[in-house]
Structures are given as C-alpha cells and as structure tokens.
Amino acid sequence: MKKTVTILGGAGTIGTILYNGLREKYNIVILDKNMPEHAEEFVEVDATNFDMLLECIPKDSVALINLLTIKTENDLSDVEEFHKMTNIHFISSFYVLHAAIRLGIPKVVYASSNHTTDYYEDNGFSSLGREINSNDYPSSRGLYGVLKFASENIGQILAMKANNLSIINLRIGSVHPDEEKAVKEDDRLLRTLLSHEDTVQLFEKALQSSVRFGTYYGVSDNPGKPWSTENAMRELGFVSKVNSTDI
Fold first, then answer.
1. Are the C-beta atoms of residues 191 and 225 closer than 8 Å to each other?
2. pLDDT tens string for the chain (247 positions)?
3. How many Cβ atoms from other residues are within 10 Å of residue 40's Cβ?
4. What's the whole-model pTM score?
5. Interior angle at CA 169, CA 166 and CA 174, nearest 5
6. Choosing a second label site near 32 at 20 to 30 A (CA), which of 85, 87, 100, 143?
7. Which of 53, 31, 167 is nearest to 99 (CA)?
8. For residue 243, what are the contacts with CB-CB under 8 A and spacing of at least 6?
C-alpha cells in the first residue's frame, strides 16, 4: 500500500513535476487554492486559515511538502502587498509546521529558495569566488528571501523542540515547466537550473532521509553553478543526473 504524501501549493510547476515523478511510489494528495490539472486527489484549502489546514490535511500523511508561494510587487513599500507575502511565506509556513506536529506527521520538506542568499549571486554567478553554501550567512535583496530564511529558522526551532519531526529545507534554484526552451532563452539558467529529473530526485531523497534538520541547495550539476550541493550529496545522497547541458 502506498504511503500518502501531501503537497501544499501543489498546483504549480514544481507540484506538477513532483506529482508526475512520485505518484508511482506515493499516494499524492494536492492541497491548493487552485485546482491542478494533474491530481487524482485534490483538496481546496486556504493555507492562511490554520483550522481549515488542520481539517484538510490527510491524517495518514507521512510527509508534507510545502510549495506555497505568491507573487507580489512593491512588497517593501506597499503595506497590503507586504502582508500578502508575509501571510504565505511566513505565517503559512508556521501553520504547516505546527499542523505536522499537531497531526503527528513526522516529515516536512520545505521549498525554500536560492533568494535567501541572492546578495551573493548575480546572473547565476557567485560573487564569493567559490560556490555559495548553506554555511554562508543569508543575505537577501528582497522580502521574499528574508521570509524564506525566517521560515527555515522557525523549522529549525520546532525540529529541535518536537519529538520525531524531521524538517528539510531545499533552497531551490530555477525550475521551469519548459526547461528545454528556457535554457535556450535565458543565459542565467545555464548555471542555475534544477532539471525536472533532479527536482524529483532531490525531493524524494528528502522524503527518505533520516536527517532531523538540514538545509540544502537544489541545483543541477551545471557548469559554473553558483551554489554548492556538497552537503546534499553527503547527507541526502543527491547526485545530479541531468544538467543544463544535457537538455
């Protein structure tokens, strides 16, 4: 019998990739405000409503994957936009973690972002003279990266306090629905791409991992990539199979 993995915010690009790549091994349930085209099991949910979230998450889930996201503009100058970002990228992150604890779900995989350290990166090149790694102090150019890092930290605190809770943060590089076309049109992607195949592998490794808490960059083994995946290889067993030159 397949184990249930619930993907929050699973109607987007990464959710579609994971659904297609993991559904043979897991029973995938998608929770989102928008109905996905791909899911057999879908529950409409507003992740900013904690009680609704608790009610809608399948109780037999062995893991939650948090892909929740929202796009805004002027979020550091417009108070309303600031709250939209904070509600999804921080408050809902806490709700998902707290729901896992309340429901006894032992694993949360959080889709963080390379933007937690984007101050050190320009057009896919590291400004440090080496690959950026998870030990480098997070420094972001915008609210999105700040909130992603804050959510990582909340996860670390809860993983330390809660029994039997594993939290894996994946700082995702660039994932595109049409990666073949995208790498031809955007020079940055030649270095920052996380291919579809590697996306599935990375998340699957995170699901299978016994690591209590960890933060890892998600990028394929592209020539000149700005972020290090050394600890993902060492601790999760992630080995890139398809990079930007293979597509």
1. yes
2. 999 999 999 999 999 999 999 999 999 999 999 999 888 999 999 999 999 999 999 999 999 999 999 989 899 999 999 999 999 999 999 999 999 999 999 999 999 999 999 999 999 999 999 999 999 999 999 999 999 999 999 999 999 998 899 999 999 999 999 999 999 999 999 999 999 999 999 999 999 999 999 999 999 999 999 999 999 999 999 999 999 999 9
3. 10
4. 0.98
5. 150
6. 143
7. 53
8. 193, 195, 198, 220, 221, 222, 223
- In the DSSP assignment, the letter for residue 132 is B
- Residue of 205, 194, 197 lying closest to 237 (CA atoms): 205
Cα separation, 164 vs 10, in Å, equals 25
Q: How far is CA 12 from CA 31, 32, 235, 239, in A?
A: 11, 9, 28, 25
Measured CA to CA, the distance from residue 176 to residue 194 in angstroms comes to 8
Pair of tokens at residue 88:
């999804």
| Pairing state between β 125-126 and 121-122 | antiparallel
CA distance 70 to 34: 12
